[in-house]
Each structure stands twice: as structure tokens, then as C-alpha cells.
Amino acid sequence: MSGTTDSSRDVGLPVTASRGVPGGRPPEPAPRSEAPRTPSPTAPSRAGRNLAWLAAAGIISSVLIMIAASVIRNSWEIPRLILPATGPPWGFSPHVPLTVVTTALWAAALAGGGGVIAGLAALRRGALLPVRLLLAVAVAAVAAFTVLPPAGSTDAIDYAVYGRIAVLHHSPYVMTPNQLRRTGDPVGRAAPIIWGRHVTVYGPLATAEQYVSAELGGTSAARIIFWLKLWNAIAFGAVALALDRMLRSSPARRIRAHLLWTANPLLLWGLIATGHLDVVAAAAGLFGLLVLRQRAPDGDPVGSAAAKPTALQGLAAGLLVGIAADIKISFLLFAVGIVWACRKSAAAWLSAAAGGAIVLVPTYLWSGPPAARALLDKSAKISVDSFYQIFVGSHGHTIPYQLAVAGLLCVAVAVLMLLRLPDGAPALPAVQPALAVTLAWLFIWPYQLPWYDSMAVGLIALYPASRLDWLVLARLIAPTFALMPGNAGLPPQHLLALITNDSLFWWAPVVLLAAAVALVWLGVTGAWKMDPPLLSRTAEVPQPA
């Protein structure tokens, strides 16, 4: 991937990548009477071309299956969602056996994850997938998922209920979905049972977003979810656009970013199809880190004499990361990146702290102590596919002193990552420390779900290719497979039910444990195999004079 500086051509699947000049010395200028010389392209290997075709086939087939499953959501997932007479969202309810949907979605998870892996492997062999193809698949998928009912998770229905509670002038930090259901409210009747006894565990700005959506959606839970999905789609597209613009001068890195984020079927399913709000927080947090970019004087390498961040940059970064944390408190980890990037400027550091406080303090004061208590609601829980299950032998049990053990492990791995994770984006000084602590939390904390990884994928997309890519994809594929098809159940003795049980409590936890061990091994040995870092905030490589 390194050294691929040819401009992107979108006709045909594999696009040839040209090699840079060995040693980095500019070529002699051509005489005026001669045509300018261009480097001779090196054709991608046959294996690279085949991998590119496999990547395209896997990604497209995966997205099509996911769209089809979303269209018929009411035929297989519970609770059944009453759709408005005139959409959006739109859907159909034909009779499709749950076994067919489950098998198809498992195939989609494997094909989607395998497609992304094949695309990254093709890049290594000089074959570039067309950017236009990736963008077209992503735009079509996001548009379709936005106007279809949520599938694969009932969390979006809970969001609609929380918004409805707020519209009715109650606090979702005090009133539960079950309490709203007992009032006979039409949105309350749609509330899933699984979280019916729990108040919201999200931040005040998440509640504000849900309130606005509930105002727009009225008494239809499905219509409220459409508005929630629309905000998600805008946030997802904003990140994709930012990555495209920042990496536009390096075709291979641009395509890699779109493979990891924009056209990644696993993210499209976990964030857009299901309607999880993590994508809005991920977008705000990422943009907060990008604000603190370095600008070196012309001719100097980044980091040598870069200007200190200004107070205005610090304020903007604090505001954006504060917004992310006010949606989901785990994004407060991004503040570590801000602290590091502003370490040489007291004005920028204080402005960033003020920006975060401007967002977080008033909203939590307005929401009251119940909102603060909600932050701890999941702290003693363990997610269904967590690798900690391996050590306790049964779902629902926690390990002894779970909070202390997980906290100490997280801190230890975070320190290791801060010290040993290479800086793959020196022009963006907040990215490396934010990614380091985020990886530690995602890989080690006992309550994790695959869509949480959107927190790190956007940052990794800015990084050069490395072995870290494979660990993140493994974490996405295994839990996504295990959690499919979502809130739908087969008879306990059914073969597919047994496969689901084994994948939830054994296969996925083993993969997640192996990924955590591999992350520590990479940190200790330094065997990242990382491509050269980005040289400027737009990922430009040195050009001949």
C-alpha cells in the first residue's frame, strides 16, 4: 500500500498503482521539447485482481441480503413494529421462515467481513477497488436502511420510547418503558420486553435527539425511528466524506478508509440498519480530534516546527468531544487525545476544558442526579459474548471483583498502547493517544457490543495499514455473526439455535480473547507491520519539485 501515488481510476475493478521514485529523490526535469515522463505503472498481481473481485462480490452480496432482511423485518423479528400507512419507513411482511433469515444473515456477516478482508489484501497486492463502486454501494445501502424498519436489534425502539417519555414531560432517567406501556401509550406498547424495566443509559444529548425525533414522529414508533435513523445516516456520511477528503491524494489509503468505514457491511448493519446512536457520537468525537491538526511551515516535516494549537481550536475540540460524551459517556476517552495535543499550549488546553464543560455541565444539571446514576447502570454487567464468559462458565455471571479487575487491565493495556502504538498520523496529534486508550477499553472492558467499535474504526481509517486492521475486523465479524439475527428466537433444540448458543458463549468470546491477547502481543513486541505514517493533514505524499 505504501508508495501508491497514482490517481484513482474508477473504470474496471482492479486499478493499477504506480510506484514512487526509490529513495524519494525527484526525477530530473524533462527537456522542454520532450513530453513529461511518467512512472511506468506496475500491474497488480493476478491474486490481487482476484481478491478485488471477491471483495466486490462479498460486499455487494452482503449488503443485498441485509437490505432484504430489513424489508421483511416484521416477518421474523419481535416485537412486531406497526408501520405507518404512508412511509417512511416502508416494509413488507411475507411469510419467510426464521431459519432462512438466520442462515442468510450469517452468510451476510461472513461475506461482508470476508469482502472487506479481501479488499484490504488486494490493496497489499497493488489492486485498487474503484472508489465509485464503494461509494455507490454505501450510498444505496445507507439510503435503503434509513427508510426501512430497524432490524437486528431492538435498541432503536427503546430510543423511540425514551423520546416519547420526554415528549410527555417525563424523565427517561426516572420513567421506564414498562411504565409508559402501562399508560396505554401507542409508542409505549411497542417497547421491547428485554429493557422494559430499565431507564435510559445514554447521555442528555442523546435524550434531546430522541425528544426531537419523537416530536417529529408523533405517536408512531416506526416514524420516530425513521428520524433517528436519518440523523445516523447524516453522521455516517459526514465521516465518510471527511475521510475521503483527507485521504484523497493517496488512492490506496483512500480506498482502505472506505473499506473499513464507508462500505463495510458490518458497520452498515450495526449502525444504520439497526439504528444505533453510536455513529452520531463517533462522528462528533472524530471531528473534535481532527480540529487539532498541526500546520507546519512550508518545507518542514510535520511535527518539527508545527504551530501550537490555538485557543479556538481547543474550544472547538472540547465542544465536539463534549457532545460525543454527552451522547455516550465512553467517548470521554477521546479527551486523552485533546490533553496530549494541547500539552504545549495552556490556552488551548483551558479552552478545550471549557468547551467540554459548556456541553456536559448544563445538560447533566438539567437532567438531575438520575442521569448521573444512569451512567453506572451497565458497569456491573457483562455482555452476552464477552470473553470473560470463558472464565465464569455461564452467561449472566460476573467474575470476582469484576470492576476492579477490568479497570486495572484496561489501565495497563492503555499505558502499553500509549507507549507502544506507533503514531500513524503525526499531523493529527490527538488521534494516536485517543486511539490508544479507546483500543484498551474496547478490547478489555467486559461490556462490549460490535457497534461500539465504530469508536475506533474511524480513527484506524486515518492510520496506515497494519496488523491492527485484522484484529479490528475479527472483533467486528465474530460478534456480529453471533448476535444475528437479533431479537428473534428459535426452539432451543433446533440446530440453528444450538449454533447461536455456541457462537455467543464460546466462538465469539474465544475470538475476542484472542484479539485482546494479540493486541497486547503487538504492543509488547512492536510487530505492527505498519505502513509509513501520513505526512500531512490531507495525507499527501511528497511530490517531485
Order of helices and strands: EHHEHHHHHHHHHHHHHHHHHH
Shape: globular
Unreliable stretches? 1-41, 298-305, 537-545
Number of strand segments:
2
The helical percent reads 55-70%
Structural class: mainly alpha
C-alpha termini separation: 23 Å
Count of discrete domains: 3
Radius of gyration: 24 Å
- Kindly report the average pLDDT value: 87
Strand fraction band?
Answer: under 5%
Main sheet makeup: 2 strands, antiparallel
Structural description of this entry:
- By secondary structure, this protein is mainly alpha-helical.
- It folds into three domains: 44-276, no CATH class; 278-377, no CATH class; 381-545, no CATH class.
- The protein is 57% helix and 1% strand.
- The chain contains 20 helices and two strands.
- The protein has helices at 46-71, 98-124, 131-146, 155-167, 177-182, 204-217, 221-246, 251-262, 265-273, 278-291, 311-327, 335-341, 346-367, 369-374, 389-392, 402-420, 431-444, 454-462, 468-483, 495-525; strands at 15-16, 127-128.
- Helix 17 (431-444) runs antiparallel to helix 18.
- The longest helix is centred in the C-terminal third of the chain and has 31 residues, at 495-525.
Question: Can you describe this structure in just a few lines?
Answer:
The chain has 545 residues and is mainly α.
List the helices and strands and how they pair.
Layout: E1 15-16, H1 46-71, H2 98-124, E2 127-128, H3 131-146, H4 155-167, H5 177-182, H6 204-217, H7 221-246, H8 251-262, H9 265-273, H10 278-291, H11 311-327, H12 335-341, H13 346-367, H14 369-374, H15 389-392, H16 402-420, H17 431-444, H18 454-462, H19 468-483, H20 495-525
Antiparallel strand pairs: 1-2
